[in-house]
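Action item from last meeting closed. Structure (125 res):
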């Protein structure tokens, strides 16, 4: 069953049937993880096709979204996903990946400041 599903998903990705892939990814019980579906979309449709899956609410958790954005080199989006995940450590590791890219580093620093600031203010209450 998993092999058949993989062949079907790969065929949809090759023929750019993104709607079919999205329908599959939204099912409750699936044989192939959504992360693999997103990787197929990126492989056959590029970053824009993958981004359509990554920005869809409810398909992926924050950690998977962050990891895939990093893997695809979408660092600004990864920073936002790390912020949504409320994970300062993830943002710190992203800073290392983005060394020399001042625009993204500034964004990451802003997110970290917000997270650290919101944590410290809630501790004071």
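Sequence:
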């Amino acid at each position: 069953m998993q092999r058949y599903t993989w062949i079907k998903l790969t065929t949809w990705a090759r023929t750019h049937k993104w709607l079919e892939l999205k329908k599959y990814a939204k099912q409750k019980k699936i044989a192939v993880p959504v992360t693999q579906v997103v990787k197929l979309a990126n492989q056959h449709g590029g970053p824009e096709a993958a981004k359509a899956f990554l920005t869809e609410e409810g398909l992926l958790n924050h950690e998977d979204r962050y990891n895939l954005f990093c893997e695809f080199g979408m660092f600004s989006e990864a920073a936002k996903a790390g912020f949504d995940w409320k994970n300062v450590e993830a943002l710190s590791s992203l800073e290392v990946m983005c060394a020399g890219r001042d625009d993204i580093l500034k964004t990451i620093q802003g997110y970290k400041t917000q997270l650290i600031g919101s944590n410290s203010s809630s501790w004071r209450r």
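Note appended to the action item: Residues 102-124 form the longest helix (23 residues).
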